[in-house]
Amino acid sequence: MGGDAVVLSDVWKRFRNVVALRGISFRVRRSEIFGLVGPNGAGKTTTLRIISTLVKHDNGFVEVLGHHLPEGKSEVRRRISYLPEDAGLYHRLTGWENLLYFAMIYTEDVQEARKVAEFGATLTGLSRRDLGRRASEYSKGMARRVAIARTLMVKPDLVILDEPTSGLDVFSAYAIRGIIKNFVKKEGMTAIISSHNMLEVQSLCDRVALINRGKIVAIGTPKELIARMKASDLEEAFIRMVGDSYE
Amino acid sequence: MSKLYPIVWKETKDMFRDLRTLSIIAVLPLLIMPLMGLSSIYLQRFQYGVAVVVDNDRASATIGNATFTSSDIANALARRLSLNGFTVYREESVKDFDVEVVIPRGFINNLTSLTSQALIKVVKRVGSSKAEVAISLVNAVASDLVRKVANAKVMLLASLANVSVRTESVIYPVVLSIGLVGPYGGATTPEEDIRARISRLISFSLIFVTTPSIAFITDSIIGEKERKTFEALLSTPVPRYSLVLGKVLSSSLVGLVAGLSDATGLLLFFAIPSVIYGVNLLGYLTPSIVATHASAVYISVLASLAMIMPIIIRTGSYRASQAASLSIIGISSIVFFISLYVDLPNLVPLVKYILYVIPYTHAVIMIRNAVVGLTVNSAVHGLIALAESSGLLLLSVKLFNDERIIYSKT
Asked: Structural domain of residue A105, as residue ranges?
């Protein structure tokens, strides 16, 4: 299975009567930003949760950073960082304390944790004063900046971001995309980003998997997918690919 | 760094910044327990009570030198009731009473006869707590009368028979001599006996400590899920035992705050009768009793958390946790309430061993044994409670299922 950061092969997942994933397969190469795009209920979050070790797949093969899941989940958890969709902050902690908490979880001593949190603080782009305020006083955009910084500051081998800009205004979303693009690329991290914002994925990702109804319908670079569907952008390409089956 | 540290660090910061809830937890026992003390003493007095005392006999008679008059007896009854807060009416026409006491016709005749018994008719209103108080007051007057009449009759018979008689030997031919023995068989003092009785009240006070910590641990897990912070935390390298233990330890600190407040409330509870009656009940609370109480508080808090944890972990739901917490509070109430009047270790084996499965039982026995000087036995029961709680926490770790928690409905 070589040097790929993530390998999924014929992965199935069922929740009672609902089949969430129907044999999806894809690989994420090391140091690439991989997009997982699809409509609501397509299976993006379930896929990310499986890769994040939170959900066990029913059938198929999952390997993350060289470890099979679910057996190797403890090793995987040390090397990944996951930002769930709408992930919140601890409202009674300050922004700084939110960063420090996660830094302490990933490090071995408080001094090291402080350094990591300091780095996270610079990633947020927020002032010291703002970081000293309780998270309950933050706007959605500020909270998301802290959450993104919290995810990236530990410099994981694999970062998993589920809808990182969903619900944000244009300026906040732009700032978040800037953090992701600059930092992830610069550090050579592998990233998987799910979104239903096709333009965001087109601008951020090296390769993209289009997922619909629990199946991967296409994988390639944004350019390849656009060319394959003779579309003007990724959104149009996606609609052409799945439009007939999407109600 | 142990992964336990960040969890405890965050949880304690989070909880101790919830000042509104904390202040309620800390202040409530300080208000409730003295109020309990006050209400138990004062409310009975402030309760409106009506008594009717009627003398239908209007007679008097003598036994030897002693004269007994029905009106004197009725007056004595009325005075005793009146002194204890009753409004006393002397006409039979009053029907809205808690208790009616009637001296019937022929009462004095029967009272002074050597072949009959005299009857005082008492009618009480169903469900009236004041009626119970009134009857005990009537009994006290009647006992006084019985002693006087018996004394007069005995002296009369003695003079007729020309024998020497000591009245008490006739009226009370058997007297109980009650001694006290300590847990190791040696003699002990009445103070120790009072202390042992107080230990029941101390055990009962544990009833207040279970609720706050349960509320905090439920919020700590299900609230975190609801506020969408749990999923990210679960994907980190935090071992599940650190997560469970960290949250339990932090919530137990809140429980400890509640416990300290509870202990202070208990002191106030004892202080009130001390002030009102001049009885120094506080003097019976030795430092070791207070320390044992504090330990029992912490153990009870841990036990509550350990009991609710598997349910929270398994269901991940507020509703199920609330239902479970009610059950746990119910169980604790049963154990702490029966400890008021039952010696738990002396129950029949089946019941005893069922109760021994509940950690609260050991907290109660721990207090009781410490108070009577069985220190080692007290410590053993404390350790059993801790062991049972640890077992439940291990079960929680075993039951921890990320997927179930993530997808459960809150």
From this structure: 6-242
Q: How many domains does chain A have?
A: 1
* Cβ contacts from A onto B, under 8 A: 82
Contact A93 B14 (CB under 8 A): yes
Residues in chain A: 247
Cross-strand partners of B181: B187
Q: For chain B, what are the domain ranges?
A: 4-42+183-407, 47-171
Window A:69-128, CB contacts with B under 8 Å? 74, 77-78, 80-84, 86-93, 97, 101-102, 104-110, 113
Could A93 and B402 be called an inter-chain contact, meaning their C-beta atoms sit closer than 8 Å? no
- Complex ipTM > 0.90: yes
> How close B242 comes to chain A (CA, Å)?
11
Q: Cα dist. B368→A85, B210, B292, B342 in Å?
A: 53, 19, 9, 11
Structure pTM?
0.79
Per the CB < 8 Å rule, is B229 touching A82? Answer: no
Q: Among 3.30.530, 3.40.1700, 3.40.1710, 2.20.28, what is the CATH number of B47-171?
A: 3.40.1710
Inspect the interface and report whether the beta carbons of A90 and B403 lie closer than 8 Å: no
Residue B254's nearest CA partner among B66, B35, B22, B33 is: B22
Angle at A3 between CA A204 and CA A198, to 5 degrees: 20
Interface test with B, best of A54, A148, A151 (most B CBs within 10 A): A54
What is the CATH number for A176?
3.40.50.300
Closest alpha carbon to B307 in B172, B239, B217, B246: B217
Alpha helices in chain A (DSSP H): 44-51, 73-79, 95-106, 110-124, 128-131, 140-152, 170-187, 198-204, 222-228, 234-242
Q: Mean pLDDT of residues grouped by 10 in chain B (410 residues)? A: 88 88 81 78 75 95 92 96 92 89 95 93 91 93 94 92 88 86 77 82 80 83 87 93 93 82 77 70 78 88 91 84 86 88 87 92 91 89 95 93 84
Is residue A14 within 8 angstroms of chain B, CB to CB?
A: no
User: Which of A87, A105, A113 has its CB closest to that of B237?
Assistant: A105
